[in-house]
Batch of 3 targets.
Target 1
Amino acid sequence: MKKNLLILYFIFLVISSSAQPIFEGKYFSGSGDTTYIQLLDKAYRMLRPDAELENLSMLYYPKYDGFTEGLPKWDMWWIQNSFGPTYTLLPFMDKAYQTFILNSQDLWFKHIGNGVRKDLFGYVGPVGCLCDAAIPEGTVYRQGDAKHHIHDWAYGMTTAGIILQSELLLINRNRDLINKYLPLLEQSADFIDLRRDTVKNIFLMGTAANLLAPSYAGSGKLLEDGTYEPAYLAEISVNYIAALNRLIELEKFVGNFKKVDQYAQRKDKVTEGLKHFITDEGYFIRSLDKDGTKHGLYGAKKHGYFEMVPNHDAMAFRVADDEQAMKIYNKIKSIPGLRPYTLTILNYPAYDDMYEQGGLFTYGKWVNGGHWTTTEARMLMGYYRVGAYEDAKASFERILSLAPIFRLDNGLEDFGNKIQQDWLPINAVYDSWGAPGGFLRGLFEYEYKADGIMIYPHIPPKINKLEQKFPIYYGDKKIFISTIGSGEITSVRINGKLIKEFSPTALFLKPDSKDKVIYVSFGLGNANAEKKCKVNEYKTNIPADIEFWNPYTIYTKSEKDTCRIISISDFKKVNKFYNVLRKKGFQDAYEYKLSQLILENLQAIYERKKLKESDGLVKLPLNSQIAADNLYISTLNNLYFGLNRHLQKNSKTNNERKIASLWHLN
């Protein structure tokens, strides 16, 4: 009898397990909370060409083979706007996207302050100063809006720029690039450190030195020269620690241990100085005046607002430990005014210490109580750290709702409830991709080091199996990750081999083998990591039918007269080139990845036509529909133009010459 009961119980367990809902998506698969897994799938769909959703490739800008900030085109590349999306998306960027980011960020370093060079306003930037934003022709060393003549240098932007470029270099792992940029990053780190009070070990900053400037005006006390008295700004300390952490890893990578020691000592001092900004409840104030007055002490009669940036950044970049991160989150959660429409706003209530009021400075708009998805990206990282998965889900869903209607605008007004440029037929602003970026990177964090990656699984408890069908990148290696079970890490397999070196919350992966592809399986809770070491990676699949190569693929007959025609013969050439590169073993080359991106866009157009024919797309106003459809065509043409121009340039390496010859032979 007892034996029969055990058999029945075993059968029950098997049936219960097999009854779990399963989702098999294009980029994610898994079981358990399939609603969440579907959202993860849609997040990655926003990165790659997609028939329904606005996607990242649409912001490609062939002028400098990079990204543009927004469409209609914002003609500069901003640090504050790109900070959140770039940081959260970098692990997932292949050689094409990495190159776009590298070329975009090179605009900042090409024009880095040197004590002589003038910016577009005529200001001479100090050595190591980065910028608010840059274009190929020049840069802006101060935040360029409002009264820029009273603004301090771009300290908040420079700090963020160090983080972004260091993160890119740690992922890319190209020694030549590191040797090129590391001296410039060191200049920027020293530029910031010159403002450190060597007694308090915090940074004295003037008007608009913050990242989302010009909402900060120091102490708010007007001086005789028309500027405002500087104050100690918390966000500089928080992000400078994050920047030094990455610089230390780069110095380790090149073997410069004297610099490692120097930066480690500097980091320890700045970390010790954080005590001046941390409240009894564990969150960070915004700033501290010379006389001890606190700005951002929530509930105080004066300057009693809550400031988001130093708090979610401390969570996202692990400047705050787990205990403090939870305290910060609990404080944010206790203030409904910080998330009136699901998304976080920058501050609650309104600032009482800005140098202007009204207009753009009105509460609920721009940098005073507005919403910017570049900051939401870091908040999403924070949500995952503390297990606030439903908050992360709700945040991403809000931005996702704008993707099928082509309204990915930023910043959002009315406390995050309204797009800013609603008079345009469509919107596409790079900030918005901070939402899918944070929603994806938060799952595992990916803390890149000189010799490996620290991976922190943050898997919602209702998901009992998860598989990423796309890789994260570590130099020339591709890493695929899957999980089974729920809870803390109890077992790990790497390429099928069981390993023992991990903690309940993290794995330090050292991809030092010759394997170009690495499969990591996490067993969570009581589950055992899976032995299989193969993920069903999504691959570009060009249909063989004649209709696919129809130049009017995207349009119905009634729409032809309102839309541009594309030259399909050029894209047939790309397809042939792509296949030749694959056969010749150039799958990791930039030219291959860019060709793949072009073909995926062509495939998205083909699939979009099918959806239109079956009424499978969200209905848009006619002018928006035409603009959205034309965006697919202009993206395709821009990418082709970029590839063709790249292959016409003088090649530097043997591989580049071989690849260029294959293009010209077609």
Target 2
Amino acid sequence: MCLIIRKTRVEGGQERPRRRVGCLGGCLIFFAVYLICSAILGWLMGDMFSSSTVELKEKTVYRLELKGNLVEQAQEENPFASLMGQMPYGNYANQETVGLDNILSNIRLAKNDERIMGIWLDGGQLGMEPASAKAIRDALLDFKGSGKWIIASAKNYGATNYYVASVADRICLDPTGSVSWNGLSAQKMYYTRVMEKIGVEMQILKVGTFKSAVEPFFRTSMSDADRLQTEQYLGGIWDEYKTAVGASRKLSGEQLDALADRYMGLQPAKEQLAAGLVDTIVYYQDMDSLIRVFAGTKDYHILTTGKLASVKRPESKAKDKVAVLYMEGEISEDGSEGIVSKDVVKQLKKIQKDDHMKAVVLRVNSPGGSADASEQIWHAIQNIKADSTPVVVSMGGLAASGGYYISCGADYIFAEPTTLTGSIGIFGTIPNVKKLRDKVGLDIDGVKTNKHADLDANMIYKGMNPEEHALMQTMVERGYDLFTSRCAEGRHVSQDYIKSIGEGRVWLGAKGKEIGIVDELGNIDSAIEKAVELAGLENYKLVYFPEKKDTFEEMLKMLDNTTDEEKLILKVRNFCSKPRVMALMPEVTIQ
């Protein structure tokens, strides 16, 4: 199983390849009509748009499905989702997402509500970052303090999912399945030779020895600095996995390493059982019998994550509010995906204008992005603090580079031990297409009134000369100076110290606490508690931002039919067309 540390969104604000029309256009019109008719029919039958509130019955089991992709904030359940998944065109099944906020809320409810008997962890292929996995695992451990039971079942467990499932009282495995306890590896894709073949040279401007986000465009392998930082944070994640799994399964670190060296993902189920990784070999279709044993009855009810999240919670009547603002994805000035600065600033201003908002919690899960957009968000946060409103950051799987930029000015910062943070550095990229022009026979000429009036065009069509390169490098260095000054101001340390632990280096949250870029290790609940403490509140209610997207917006998103080849082309092109100065963490795939 692959765990994507950072998911690059290729749509946000960028031009998409032109689609062919005709037959495809006719099909889309047909499906649109089909969807509308189905929606009307479902509404008339009272099925598709049933009441959003779900009744919680006695003898309920929370079925927490570990599949799909985990996001920070759940969106409204789409009544078209199952219908879309049955259509003959498109990659709709891959669009399923699960909200970490819903999972954590549901586990708390399951712990405290006597109508819920236990939790069934169903499946082992949920795409999530290590820090998010730890948040779920910690919540499950807290749930076990109630004396209720947890069972887990899957055909195949990925390493991160097994790390979560290891808390269960009984771990079940299908007779044909396996536990991919094989160790972790990190890979990067390098595009340098591809660019050479098409005649494009990427001109690089950066500050920071460890700022490796641009290496794929001028190297064919890891630099020594990038290899060092990757080995260190990957080893830290693996140590966390071994420590936690070892405590739950009563296995030593040496035993777990020995099992990983056997590549348990290719071992038969009986070997997984003999090794102590699982407790029971059972077909998935027979799980009902086992749940009956744990539940003590055959008359139990199942509620999945989406349904349990719809169970009505008690509403606070308090006037004082704590805002919880989710910021997830790459940072940009404009677009429809990720952290869009103009939208975030608008939300922060709305929060600031509300006199009943007494504290703000920022949930940040971002590899960074535009340095200018990061600065705009940083400034809006400082405006809130200027009104004596405490701001606390809760870091998710990533709060690196621009993700750290927008976090550093908070009053207090929480991170998970396996959060990837830091990466305090700046880079710029400008493609030089001179060789491509020569290949296709494209000539360019013009006039100018001043020495550098044609700088923008020259950089791309002819390549930078030494003087132009120096000008651009100076601009990037100014960006780095501003970034490090923001960090120094926010962390109350010298700028020289920030530069000494900066250089674009990626740190785990646990190490971030040691070097002072994080205040405390904890999850979003810890951050909310701290914000309440700083604001001196007793009675309050939580208000969440941004508002969840509506059903039809989500439905249109599901119509995306971009092929993997198109996504790769878009990925290279979008990187080349990003803003000149970026604060972005390198993209890594961990397996």
Target 3
Amino acid sequence: MRALTGIDTDRLEEEKRRGISIDLGFAHLGSIGFVDVPGHERFVKNMLAGASGIDAVLFVIAADESIKPQTREHFEICRLLGIRRGIIALTKCDLVDQDILDLVRLEVEEFVAGSFLESAPVIPVSATTMQGLDQLRAALDRTAGEIAGKDASRHPRLPIDRSFSMRGHGAVVTGTLVSGSLAVEDEVELYPAGIRARIRGVQVHGSPVERARAGERTAVNLAGIDASEARRGMTIAPPGLFHATRMVDCAFELLAGAHPLKHRAPVHFHTGTAEVEAQARLLSSLEPMRPDTRAHVRFILREPLLLLPGDRFIVRMFSPVVTIGGGVVVDMAAPARMRRAQIDQRLGRLENGDRVSILVNESKFGMSAAEIVARTGILAVEIGEPEGLVRLAGDWLVSRAWIDGTVAKIREILKDFHRSHPLQPGMAKEELRSRELSGAPGFLLDALLARAKDIAAEGENVRLASHRVTLKEDEESAAEKIEAQFREGGLAVPSTTEVLAKCGVEAARARSLLQILLKNRKLIRVGDDLIYHVSAVEGLRKSLQGRKGERFSVADFKDWTGVSRKYAIPLLEFLDRERVTRRDGDGRVVL
């Protein structure tokens, strides 16, 4: 790397003493960024932290050693990570003669046959004599020009591969921006820790910029956190946008050279720059998974990670620690209480079907656009209104079938209610919500009722539009008696309990009749157990009209109306609420 770019990527004293890469190193050549990863078999975990997010591989094979076990492991890792382009550099070519170099080239070409590196340039180089470096630079330029850049329009995600503190700046983290863009003053969150911060500064290849874009090696200066709070394996993304998870359903490929994978086998799970311990749960069968096969597997992670569908990962054995496979994340939050076979079939549908429709249809009450973004990583503007789905209240998606089914159930509930409570104008909205939409967002019932032409919502009651309160002969007589008793009481009304007891029907129907009279404004509730006939209240209003602006006391009011304090205080409080009077110190003023 030093010979190629002029930058020494070995930062550690032990790396310089031993002459090998141990941790990640970083360099650039023009617009091309390099992540120099260790080649030694003992440091593959560090290699994995650097290999995520790269667009092409510069695959280094020493001419004096040819293909080694770690060469094969690194090659399989690159393939499993979905890398599609690369260049092969045969290094140390000054240490072998031409015959050996030709033999190594043949071995390499045979090794990569049928793979993504089959047509890659194979360039002999020497960092000592500088042989082949110009050809290698030219090949790098050609390859870089042929690679489509990462999508800067997506949600930004920066897996952290290094964190440190700089004097005068504070916390700095670095990584390869795998999607989206990050700009100065952006608010961000460190997943999965949930730590929020503000971007104070951004650098790309060591130079300050206002905005870093997908594919660029990026350093971010974070305000509001300590450097010790950020570590390799975390991911920077917009605050509150995603959810970290401990359960990952995947399409997994077990390498041909691996041992069969047993159900509940402990493994190391590598994705992005993170490594966590995990347990493999086989789905299609509890029989050990055979090498060189592909299947759906669930991984239960010991620590949460930020993962999205389409993310790639590598799995290594727990002991000995060698790479055994890898694959692609399909989903991170399957519905609870599904059988293994059902999960397996569901993952197949997610891989081949409309993910948004599947997620919305299997959700009990639909999903918000924000939740869909968190589960899929797509942009909110891309969600639209897929076939068979409907948007309610702006950003809430449900299926048409769910709407039809739920409205039909509400109709049946209301029919039963009207049949059992013919004197009530409708069912309380909260009661309906608790019976049919318990746990759903509060707005969902109102949105559904607004779409049902044959259901009427009036205040806090819901009824079938066709429902009318029809009184029987004895009920009409009882209602007249109730109204008459309150009318005759004037401002000194009798007890509501006494009135209902004398009306001639049982208590439940009497209370329903009272509610009908209140709803029709023939009676007016002034206090908890104080109800007046509308004529008495209107008469009181008229009597006060001639006293507009006059200040009075409770005693004055008692003299004007002839009522006792028992009735005077609730009446005055009612008049205050109705803005007929206003409390003014110890007295009141007629408005």
